[in-house]
Amino acid sequence: MSADVQQPAVVVEKLEKRFGDFVAVDRVSFDVRRGEVFGFLGPNGAGKSTTIRMLCGILRPSGGAGTVAGFDIFTQPEQIKANIGYMSQRFSLYQDLTVEENIDFYSGVYCIPRDKKQQRKQWVLEMAGLTEHRRQPTAILSGGWKQRLALGCAILHEPPIVFLDEPTAGVDPISRRQFWRLIYDLSERGTTIFVTTHYMDEAEYCDRLGLVYRGEMIALDTPRALKTEMIRPDGSLPSLEDVFVARIEARDRDEADRQSSFAQ
């Protein structure tokens, strides 16, 4: 880990990813503070998952600069992988293994020291509420249990940063609420949370939000600040959904105007 504890957990400057002529991420800049719950939102195809893959050291950027946990996204991808946790909406679990076997597998992947393996395994079982189900096949678990198990496996090595890519997709509302309690608990302990979600009620839980559209960052602020910018004539605040729809529509109008000017 970086020795500079004052440095933001994530710093991105004009990050870009191109696939041939297609620009998936277009000069995006932002930072994520240590211990912050940072929400990264946008419609399908906006560039969210591509950005996360670059930040996790999986995908090499086409341009720009950035660091994650103090490590360079271009030159130190392996160090980044060792210092983050990652959880996708598919939960990254092996369905034919038992609960305990999944934990043991990820303990090996993350090279958990032998003298800490049992302690960390017990922590995951208790956190996920699966102590009595430790020998059950993962395939028969409910979505909420799989979700908590996947989170536990992703943070077995106690990483300072956790990336959650739509982790509550397809999970019932009660399980979603329980999951967010776990996220808050991690944040209060100093873990930085970088999360994508399509649920506007979950976006409200984040300390700050970044809205990405067509590969560009079109909004970045706290949920309240974003809503206050569009305060209604009667003094009431719009919903986040209204704010984001308005931002996207404004972006489309600007693009249409540019295209019209260019055509003339």
The value of Rg in angstroms is: 20 Å
Tell me the strand order in the biggest sheet: 6-7-8-3-9-10
Secondary structure tally, helices:
9
Level of helix content?
Answer: 25-40%
Got a strand count?
Answer: 10
Q: H/E series, N to C?
A: EEEHEEHEHHHEHEHEEHH
Write up what this structure looks like.
The protein has 9 helices and 10 strands. The longest helix has 24 residues, at 240-263. The mean pLDDT is 91. A hairpin with a 2-residue loop joins strand 1 (10-19) and strand 2. The strands form 2 sheets. A 6-stranded mixed sheet has the order 6-7-8-3-9-10, sandwiched between helices. A 4-stranded antiparallel sheet has the order 2-1-4-5. Helix 3 packs across helix 4 (114-128) and helix 3 (99-109) packs parallel to helix 5 (143-154). The relative contact order is 0.15. With 264 residues, it is of the alpha/beta class.
Short description:
The protein has 264 residues and is α/β, with parallel strands linked by helices. It has helices at residues 48-55, 77-82, 99-109, 114-128, 143-154, 173-188, 200-203, 223-228, 240-263; strands spanning 10-19, 22-32, 37-41, 63-68, 71-72, 84-88, 161-165, 192-196, 208-213, 216-221.
List descriptors:
264 residues, alpha/beta, six-stranded mixed β-sheet, 9 helices
Q: What's the arrangement of secondary structure elements?
A:
Layout: E1 10-19, E2 22-32, E3 37-41, H1 48-55, E4 63-68, E5 71-72, H2 77-82, E6 84-88, H3 99-109, H4 114-128, H5 143-154, E7 161-165, H6 173-188, E8 192-196, H7 200-203, E9 208-213, E10 216-221, H8 223-228, H9 240-263
Parallel strand pairs: 3-8, 3-9, 6-7, 7-8
Antiparallel strand pairs: 1-2, 1-4, 4-5, 9-10
